[in-house]
Design a protein that fits this description.
By secondary structure, the chain is mostly beta strands. The chain has two domains: about 120 residues, C2 domain (Immunoglobulin-like), CATH 2.60.40; about 140 residues, Immunoglobulin-like, CATH 2.60.40. The protein has two helices and 20 strands. It has a seven-stranded antiparallel beta sheet with strand order 1-11-4-5-8-3-2, with no helix packed on it. The radius of gyration is 21 Å and the shape is globular. This is Synaptotagmin-15 isoform X5.
Length: about 325
């Protein structure tokens, strides 16, 4: 899904009060929804099977004041556990998961309209290493919170300037509620285009990594290697994400692979940690491929990719340390 440029408006003319937050983030009062009307498109009507909701938001960065302006616009087609739904949204700027900003609760609606502004204080130097995380909850009649879905949005690929407000929508994903595996887990998508003979890997994120040293200087990256008959063909790697055991990447890599090679080819994804001035350490690895090399979930992922040409097939995999 391609981010859509939306209308531009000034956050200084909204007449809202400012509530300061000790973590360098704060809420700005409500906004005028008329400023955020954009052309009707299929994003309002075209929902795939199994969809659990869709969230719209906008982002803008003020260079001089070093403020990230986030507008939570709306959510559509929520799928609550009960008949009624009273949703609200928590917003995090990862890797900081200790503090968040929270929207107001909308009563009894599957299609809440929020139109609320939030501000995170973040330096331009650190901005592109940050990731926005939206958690959508439902409050039941006993005041208990139920997580309905999440949106993870890395900022590293965005052009964020004073005069460039991006209006974006993303489908909600279910959060992986299972505890991390012993060495952590990695999520990635696979796709094969039989016409072009192209194998595509989208490295999405990892979680629960066992870092050898936890500090902001520690960089974690993923190396993706294409093998054939266990012989190395080519490798590519993501940019390093600093200082977190739950890095988000969203990076896409493509390899040339003829359809006749899919029975003998395999992909190795290695999660590596680099410490300044020291050697690189392997945190974990997973191999996906045909029956010749894999079993279980790794084999299922490979076979599903082949059975659904040109479609991105997304899965989580447990990392192993010795393979």
């Amino acid at each position: 899904m391609i981010p859509q440029s939306g209308p531009r408006s000034s956050f200084h003319s909204l007449g809202a009060c400012f509530l300061f937050h000790e973590a360098g983030a704060y809420v700005v009062g409500t906004i005028n929804p008329e400023l955020y009307k954009f052309p009707e498109d299929k994003s309002e009507t075209d929902f795939p099977d199994g969809n659990i909701g869709r969230l719209w938001f906008s982002i803008e960065y003020e260079q001089e004041s070093e403020r990230l302006l986030v507008s939570l616009i709306k959510v559509r087609k929520l799928q609550p556990p009960a008949d009624s739904c009273s949703p609200f949204v928590k917003i995090y700027l990862l890797p900081d998961e200790r503090s968040c900003l929270q929207s107001k609760t909308k009563r009894k609606t599957l299609n809440p309209q929020f139109d609320e502004n939030f501000v995170f204080q973040v330096s331009s130097k650190m901005l592109l290493q940050r990731t926005l995380k939206f958690l959508v909850y439902h409050v039941d009649k006993h005041k208990k919170h139920h997580l309905l879905g999440q949106v993870i949005f890395p900022l590293k690929n965005e052009v964020l300037t004073d005069d460039n407000k991006l209006v974006i929508w993303r489908d909600l994903e279910k959060e992986n509620l299972e505890p991390p595996s012993e060495y952590g887990d990695i999520q990635f998508s696979l796709s094969y285009n039989d016409y072009l003979g192209r194998l595509t890997v989208v490295v999405l994120r990892a979680r629960g990594l066992k870092l050898q040293e936890e500090s902001h200087a520690v960089g974690v990256y993923v190396k993706v290697s294409l093998m054939n008959h266990n012989k190395f063909i080519k490798s590519k790697k993501t940019a390093a994400v600093l200082g977190t055991a739950n890095p988000v990447y969203n990076e896409t890599f493509s390899f040339k692979a003829d359809q006749t090679e899919l029975d003998t080819a395999s992909l190795s994804l290695s999660v590596l940690q680099s410490i300044k001035g020291e050697k690189t350490l392997l945190l974990g690895r997973v191999v996906v491929g045909p029956f010749m090399y894999t079993r279980g979930k790794e084999l299922e992922h490979w076979n599903e990719m082949i059975s659904k040409p040109k479609e991105l097939v997304k899965r989580w995999h447990a990392l192993c340390h010795s393979m």
